[in-house]
Amino acid sequence: MQQLTTQDSIFLSMETPELPGHIGGLAFLAPTEGYDFSYETFIEFVRERLGPIDRFCWRLQEVPFGLDRPYWVRCDDFDPADHIHSIRIPAPYSDEALAQLVGRIFERPMDRTRPLWDMVLIEGLPGDRFAMLWRMHHCLMDGASGANLSEQLFDISPDAKREAPATIEDAATAGAPVSDFEMWTNAARNATELPRRQGRLLRKLVDHTFKSRRAGTDVPETPAPSDTAGDGLAPPALWNGVVGPHRRIAWSSVSLDEVKQLKNTLCVTVNDVVLGISGGAVRDYLEERGALPEKSLLAMVPCSTRKADDKALGNSITDLAITWGTDIADPIRRIAAIHEHADQEKTRAHGDALPGVLEVIGEVLLPGAANLFARGAAAAGEKMPLPTNAVVSNVPMTPFPLYVNSARIEQMVPMSLLGPTQGLNLTLVSYCGRIHFGLIYDPDLLPDAWDLVGRIPKHLLALQEAVDREFEAGVSRSLVDA
């Protein structure tokens, strides 16, 4: 028997009907001429590729009243075809119509009595193309380990044949359902360990406080490089409120090479540039609506804690709260502030930093109590402290084209979950020379989302123009000095 890890379990514990805990994505597929791509062949393809992966045939066995972490149980009669559906989008086609359809599918909570994933093949796109929507509960795996499945589900050519399935590492296992005796025995044992875990976290908090005071520093949760959110909390934005059950998506993309050139010129990271141009888009969007706070918004940036050679499935992440630079109009100064703050947060994450909110909840509360906390936080809305405004997550993929069932993947739109008081999530994936931005949001909190996501490419251009001006000014000064 295998209980979910504390980190995997927290994504179930924090789930409510309005805040489902699954992630996913939308892939635009162009069938290759001369190859048969249809719903029927797609089912056979998925059955062949995902069938050998044990984790896809697991379901949950939950402990009554949330008194302990759930167990993974194997479904012996599992067939991947039961999790694959087909739908046709009505004519005339538009990206907005597709986004609305996908949002309505994505917003539905997953059935916990079945394996926690599904796919929808959407027909009716221009040029006889398809869109593939997939959903997977976050307790099953994180974005990085999900990306590792590309070597199982995707190919590098339309005619790829495999003699054997790719090897997928997984430390977890699943077996037969757990007996009532075992379940309650384990629940009692784990409950007795709860005070010890609470005490360990309390000692860490006390030690951290005394060390900070001896060093003559304060202990804000989220230190900022200047005056941005210096109290450790984020100022509320339009989308920070009581998140409802509805979801919509929007997307755009930029050149990965252009982003890399800018990060090399500015001596920063790709993530810094991404935060800078998205922060500029958010700044303009809010300023145009008279809703831009004086202090910078804060982005929650998930950071993988797995080692470079670790390709195991499951969750292995921590979160960094980083300034979004929305209080800075100049694009170069904005990225400099983001880079400085990101370095501080990374140092804290690898040092003697306090545990994150999710880690604390997972360690000190039983799953049932964690769910009550999540429901209370979701209902409280603006009355709750706001540690960050939105999640901004980056998942790398391949620089070359990929194929699924012989169809070429033209574009990827990553999709993630919303948290209490956070009606916006911006996830991006680098694929085939471009960075694809997927924005998922609560339509009752965020108006004109296509306007927001459409500003990101414009701010990449604005950053490039600012760098060019700095270069020209530097050359001019050099000539004058000479």
Summary, kept brief:
The protein has 482 residues and is α+β, with helices and mostly antiparallel strands. It has helices at residues 6-13, 39-50, 95-106, 143-148, 150-153, 180-214, 256-266, 270-288, 331-350, 357-364, 367-380, 449-481, and strands at 2-3, 22-30, 58-61, 71-74, 84-88, 117-125, 129-137, 248-255, 298-304, 317-323, 390-396, 403-404, 407-415, 424-431, 434-441. The N and C termini lie far apart (75 Å).
Keyword list:
482 residues, alpha+beta, Chloramphenicol Acetyltransferase, 2 domains, 6-stranded mixed sheet, 38% helix, 20% strand
Please, what is the average pLDDT? Answer: 85
Number of distinct beta strands: 15
- Strand percentage, roughly? 15-25%
CATH architecture field of the largest domain: 2-Layer Sandwich
Tell me about the biggest sheet?
6 strands, mixed
What is the CATH superfamily label of the largest domain?
A: Nonribosomal peptide synthetase, condensation domain
Q: How are the strands ordered across the major sheet? A: 5-6-7-2-13-12
Order of helices and strands: EHEHEEEHEEHHHEHHEEHHHEEEEEH
CATH topology of the largest domain: Chloramphenicol Acetyltransferase
**Which structural class best describes the helix and strand composition?**
alpha+beta
- Return the domain count: 2
Radius of gyration: 23 Å
Shape: globular
- Count of discrete alpha- or pi-helical segments spanning 4 or more residues: 12
Span of the ends, CA to CA: 75 Å
Which stretches are low in confidence, meaning pLDDT under 50 for 5 or more residues running?
A: 217-230
